[in-house]
Sequence to fold (48 residues):
Amino acid sequence: MVEMMLDFMLGSLRGVSAFYFEHQLIFNGIIIGVVLWRLFTGKKSKQT
Fold:
């Protein structure tokens, strides 16, 4: 029953979410890498 409800609510996004869950470690690594890169290379604010 839950599978039927998910298919109805998500529709074509069900395939996208299945792909994401299969490759979740890669995607999360990319996201964390981008966040860390932005933290360390962001503009430095001037403190006066």
User: Anything to note?
Assistant: The helical segments are 2-10, 13-22, 24-41. Residues 24-41 form the longest helix (18 residues). The chain has a mean pLDDT of 86.
